[in-house]
Amino acid sequence: MAKKHLSVIIVPHTKTSTRTLCFSRRKLKGLAIGGIALGVVLLAVLVDYARMNVIRGRYRALRAETAEQRSTIADYEKSVTELRSKISDLETYTKKLNVMAGLKSPDVLTAPAGVGGGGPDTDEPEPPLEPDQTPPASGPQLGGLEAVQSLGRKAMSLESNLSSLLNFFEADSLRLASTPSIMPAAGWISSVYGHRNDPFTGAWTMHWGIDISTNVGNPIMATADGIVIKVQTDRYLGKYVTISHGNGFTTVYGHMSNFAVKAGQKVKRRDIIGYIGQTGKAAGPHVHYEVLKDGKRVDPRNYFLEE
What contacts 101, CB < 8 A, 6 or more positions away? Predict the structure, then answer.
């Protein structure tokens, strides 16, 4: 018994006999070491569990923040894209104003060639065809701050140009009033200025204006102030009206069903000069519209400020 260090007596509730457990010093030391080791392990597990809970909380917060940032970036990119589109439209609009003011050539407005109807002057020499040009592929989109800075520079340039144009037109309002700048009728452009296969002969011919299709009887308007110089009937254009606007501009309106003006009459922009018809060489009801600048036919779309 001298070797015993500790005795534990167990007294059962249902039995009268007792049981004694004896532990040596070595065994007690081993149990103590084992208990400490188990406590350290449990403590480590608890600490790790708490740390993982913190990490999981941070991860969920980061995911929510990332989703929010992605949504913000998507909205930002959409806004920049819309702004870029608006500035591009404004640039085109400004170019047209520059052309109307005579500050730039219509060549700066690149419009795809299309099909159109013929006119009475079919024996007029046609300009040589230019080789088809493929528009340059757009470069990589600017991102972030660089995109905003680029748009800012464009906006400042447009502001400066528009300010100069405003001063110009305020000083020369007559030029603006006499420059064709609107659609002559409400409808859709069914044939544009350029070369095409003639709808009647199939021959490759030049269409010297644009065709605007709409219902028979709809009004046709003067596209600028001027004086009516012709109210005639032609086997190609049918019933047509020619208006001289001054500053080198003349406009022609063909295939009318009826006239609303007389030769020598002064007209203002948006005055009704006739009505949509199908007279002359026409496959359907429309108005054939031409713009001449200094005696040469030009693409009317270069002067449309509204369509």
Answer: 165, 168, 169, 172, 175
